[in-house]
Write a structure and sequence with these properties.
- The strands form 2 sheets. This protein has a 6-stranded mixed beta sheet with strand order 1-12-2-3-4-5, covered by helices on one side. Strands 6-7-8-9-11-10 form a 6-stranded mixed beta sheet.
- It is 40% helix and 17% strand.
- The protein is elongated and about 75 Å long.
- Helix 7 (241-250) links the parallel strand 4 (227-230) and strand 5 (254-255).
- Helix 2 (47-72) crosses helix 3 (78-110) and helix 3 (78-110) runs antiparallel to helix 4 (117-142).
- It has 2 domains: 20-141, no CATH class; 145-383, Purple Acid Phosphatase, chain A, domain 2, CATH 3.60.21.
- The protein is α/β, with parallel strands linked by helices.
- The relative contact order is 0.15.
- The longest helix has 33 residues, at 78-110.
Length: 384
């Protein structure tokens, strides 16, 4: 094991600024808008319906932060995470479509339809659309991802590497919902792709190796002709980074912990490098990852977050593979993701040489929903 590989794993940096008031304001808006749209805005429902619905919304508002703390904080209680994640997903979908429902309210008002019929039409429409999308989104989240095929042209790729196939997994997020069968099915799908190299760009799990060992076990059966490589995501840096590096090695994967390896095929060489996630990475990590690399050889860099592309451009990396964004996961959350990431999904070019492929992710985080952001297993074929 190299010196780079055993270097200290840094914890994720977390803001220490007070966030209580901000969280409270966000929760009030998240729950308040759907309540007003479904219950309070001229619907004139019977009193018992108004009281019951109001109690339900208030209980959800109060329970959500507690459940998220118990489920995703230091206590890491899976039962709390499952309930909290479900509430979060439901209220986000209701909030989104309640906002859009009020555009329908305006149209109905212009059409001369008065309350309470107008508000009741809006309420029924919001509930119907939300329920349909949540059902569809749950099916999308729990299914084996679709296979996405992408061709990447790299100018300095030697002839012996033309047609090399990289299969990309990322953001599996093994977590509170036991997805052992799903994991086995994903591995079967990967093994059917005849990969030269299989890559995992982080966020393998939400939790420790001890808690997620069963769900991750199938990764030991992944087959690749030349290499199986893995880098850390931000979720590993919440406290389990070193143990996941060690466990992935036991499962037969090569952890590219700020280091690289060289893959040879038909007399040609491809450098496959990896760096830690942006929450813990330091400039020295890139230097360590590329130490001794032949400048004439093409380089594929594994880095969890797309925003790490800036360093890749400076280093003349040919292709960076990333995840992290989930493609937004639950529409329209992608609008917030785009505020901090240069790419949401797909292949993009940055600078004269560097390309970035951002995967929507193989699994999901939190709410078991994927709405207008399907998961994927990606096959990237490299050509010169």
């Amino acid at each position: 094991m190299s010196d780079n590989e055993t270097a200290q794993v840094l914890p994720a940096r977390r803001s220490r600024r007070p966030r209580g008031l901000t969280i409270a304001a966000v929760l009030i808006v998240l729950f308040g808008v759907p309540w007003w749209t479904l219950v309070g805005a001229g619907t004139q429902w019977p009193g018992v319906v108004v009281v019951a619905a109001t109690i339900l919304f208030i209980n959800g508002l109060l329970a959500l932060p507690l459940l998220m703390y118990l489920g995703h904080g230091r206590r890491s209680r899976d039962w709390a995470a499952r309930i909290g994640d479900a509430i979060l997903g439901v209220i986000w979908v209701l909030f989104t479509w309640a906002l859009l429902g009020n555009l329908l309210r305006l149209a109905l008002a212009i059409g001369g339809i008065a309350d309470p019929l107008r508000s009741r039409i809006v309420a029924v429409a919001v509930i119907t659309v939300s329920l349909a999308l949540m059902l569809w989104g749950c099916i999308e989240a729990m299914r084996v991802p679709r296979i996405k095929f992408v061709t990447v042209t790299i100018g300095r790729l030697a002839r012996g590497l033309h047609g090399v196939r990289l299969v990309l997994l990322t953001d599996t997020h093994f977590g509170p919902i036991n997805r052992t069968r799903w994991s086995t099915a994903v591995v079967a799908a990967v093994n059917a792709l005849d990969a030269d190299i299989v890559c995992h760009t982080g966020d393998i799990a939400d939790g420790s190796v001890v808690k997620r060992r069963q769900q991750a076990a199938a990764l030991a059966n992944v087959r690749a002709k030349h290499a199986k490589v893995y880098v850390l995501g931000n979720h590993e840096h919440f406290g389990w980074a070193q143990t996941w590096l060690e466990h992935m090695r036991r499962l037969g994967w090569e952890p590219l912990h700020n280091r690289h390896m060289v893959v040879h095929r038909d007399g040609a060489a491809l450098v496959v490098a990896g760096v830690d996630d942006a929450t813990a990475v330091a400039p020295s990590h890139y230097a360590a990852a590329l130490a001794g690399v032949d400048p004439n050889q093409p380089v594929v860099l594994l880095a969890h977050q797309p925003k790490q592309i800036d360093a890749a451009i400076e280093l003349d990396i040919d292709l960076q593979l990333s995840g992290h964004t989930h493609g937004g996961q639950i529409w329209p959350f992608h609008l917030l993701v785009r505020l901090v990431q240069p790419s949401l999904h797909g292949l993009t070019r940055h600078g004269e040489r560097t390309q970035l492929y951002t995967s929507r992710g193989t699994g999901f985080w939190g709410p078991p929903l994927r709405i207008f952001a399907p998961s994927e297993i990606t096959v990237l074929t490299l050509n010169g």
